[in-house]
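Example 9 (inverse folding). The structure is encoded as follows.
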């Protein structure tokens, strides 16, 4: 076959090779075979420049005795003929290496060497290298062939990298689509949960002064847990809207931690995992935080540790929670003697929806929410883990410069109790349990109380009488709470007060409603005293006794 036809065949084979789905190492091996044939070389290598270390890494090699170069040590940009090509991005031909100062001898048989850079968008990506056991071996035609093959492989690598980037972009778009679908789902669920939670919390509050101590303790527990669940719902809504949850106070971090650990301790005991804690008793470790969020963080980290220990079947498993006070910061460390993580897992744990847990057990949201919460608090979260050597998460919080409210101030607030009385009151809510609860709350302190389940019903009552205070749910079947207030406010010639109850306090319509002088918004689930304070026009913080 004439040499031109041979070369066209080789070029076609190379083109097919570079367009294939084969791994790059296999493409490199095929390319070297063709290159050795076309240039009648004895050896060849395909090297890639590691941009971080400037090392030239051999991806493929061809020819006899290649074990020696492979074990001869590491080669860096600037070293030898190959290193010079990697540094300057220009083809280099040496037809008598014994006279070339740049040449680094690896194989004694080599007499000539030719190298061409593999350049992608002007940058040296790697080097193609061939050598021959003959002096004066490489002439122009060989050099053109080497350069052409280097250019073809460069364009194939560039194409592959672009496709890879596109795939990653598509993946992240799909991920963010998933996130927004998840956000909608969470928001819907949170709204649904708000009504029953408001009813549970409020009803328990109605009976809080019950004289039976056992009953009283049970109600306290119900209220505490309903409040916790309510806060979680708020956080879910915040997650769905990707907003920071602002309800913060300056707290002594030790007790906040201990409360969280008390909640989780029974679960660990049940699974046979011990919980070791070291939390120094100090009043000076004040952190500005959202208690529910920080407890959620601790519970998540400890639960993850316990689940990792149990799923690996580790006996004598333990989780330790240690607090290390510093001058202007406090560190918390949650460590375990579980299975630890491979680097690949470790690199993904903060990605939303990444989980290694079996279906139904993990959502893959815990650590991404945890990291957002810590960042939101001005803190830092880091992790150390090795397979077989357990895992350790560290959180560092800045200490607060603000002071906590003194016990005396808190007591003074509580003692400022007074009775409330409303001449006439209209309540609109489509939830039967909330209507029942609000009836119990307001009936003893109202002369005239009308409770209805829709705005249309309320309109019928409001035709000929006005009310001093109207408390309405926002979302109602038919006309909603805001539309009702707007309709009635025009009709009544009184200084009525309107209170909107909603779980969607951040919507634009609610914001507009809040701006009106005689309108207030109470977020679900709410404390009854907050609703009473709003109804009486007092500030949110003042205490009000329930005349029940
Ligand atoms: P989920 O718990 O729903 O899987 P997370 O975001 O909380 O979601 O955790 C993501 C993944 O991180 C887990 O599936 C697990 O692979 C890994 N992980 C987290 N904590 C530990 C730990 N202490 N030990 C080993 N793996 C862990």
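The amino acid assigned to each position is listed next.
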């Amino acid at each position: 076959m004439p040499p031109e036809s041979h070369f066209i065949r080789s070029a076609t084979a190379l083109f097919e090779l570079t367009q294939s789905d084969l791994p790059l190492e296999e493409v490199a091996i095929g390319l070297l075979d063709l290159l050795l044939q076309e240039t009648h070389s004895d050896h060849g290598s395909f090297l890639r420049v590691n941009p971080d270390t400037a090392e030239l890494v051999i991806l493929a090699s061809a020819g006899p005795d290649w074990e020696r170069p492979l074990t001869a040590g590491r080669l860096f940009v600037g070293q030898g003929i190959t290193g010079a090509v990697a540094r300057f991005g220009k083809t280099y031909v040496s037809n008598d290496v014994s006279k070339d100062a740049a040449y680094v001898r690896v194989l004694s048989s080599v007499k000539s060497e030719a190298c061409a850079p593999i350049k992608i968008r002007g940058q040296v990506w790697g080097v193609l290298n061939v050598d021959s056991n003959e002096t004066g071996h490489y002439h122009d035609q060989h050099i053109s062939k080497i350069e052409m093959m280097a250019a073809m492989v460069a364009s194939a690598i560039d194409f592959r990298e672009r496709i890879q980037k596109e795939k990653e972009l598509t993946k992240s778009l799909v991920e963010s689509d998933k996130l927004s679908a998840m956000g909608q789902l969470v928001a819907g669920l949170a709204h649904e949960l708000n009504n029953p939670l408001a009813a549970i919390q409020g009803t328990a509050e109605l009976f809080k002064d019950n004289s039976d101590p056992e009953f009283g303790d049970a109600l306290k527990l119900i209220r505490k847990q309903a409040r916790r669940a309510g806060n979680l719902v708020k956080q879910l809504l915040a997650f769905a809207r990707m907003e920071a949850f602002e309800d913060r106070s300056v707290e002594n971090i030790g007790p906040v931690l201990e409360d969280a650990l008390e909640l989780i301790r029974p679960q660990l005991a049940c699974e046979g995992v011990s919980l070791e804690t070291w939390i120094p008793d100090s009043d000076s470790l004040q952190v500005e935080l959202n208690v529910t969020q920080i407890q959620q963080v601790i519970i998540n980290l400890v639960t993850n540790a316990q689940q990792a220990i149990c799923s690996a079947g580790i006996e004598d498993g333990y989780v330790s929670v240690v607090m290390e006070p510093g001058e202007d910061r406090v560190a918390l460390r949650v460590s375990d003697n579980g299975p630890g993580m491979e680097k690949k897992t470790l690199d993904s744990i903060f990605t939303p929806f990444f989980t290694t847990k079996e279906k139904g057990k993990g959502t893959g949201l815990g650590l991404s929410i945890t990291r957002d919460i810590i960042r939101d608090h001005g803190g830092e979260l880091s992790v150390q883990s090795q397979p077989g050597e357990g895992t350790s998460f560290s959180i560092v919080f800045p200490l607060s410069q603000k002071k906590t409210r003194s016990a005396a101030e808190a007591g003074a607030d509580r003692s400022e109790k007074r009775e409330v009385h409303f001449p006439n009151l209209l309540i609109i809510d489509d939830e039967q349990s909330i209507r029942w609860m609000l009836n119990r709350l307001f009936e003893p302190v109202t002369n005239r109380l009308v409770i209805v389940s829709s705005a249309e019903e309320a309109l019928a009552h409001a035709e000929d009488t006005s009310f001093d205070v109207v408390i309405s749910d926002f979302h109602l079947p038919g006309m909603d709470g805001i539309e009702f207030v707007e309709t009635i406010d025009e009709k009544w010639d009184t200084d009525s007060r309107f209170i909107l109850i909603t779980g969607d306090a951040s919507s634009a319509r609610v914001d507009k409603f809040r701006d009106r002088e005689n309108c207030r918004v109470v977020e679900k689930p709410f404390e009854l005293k907050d609703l009473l304070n709003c109804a009486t026009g007092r500030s949110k913080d003042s205490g009000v006794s329930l005349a029940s």
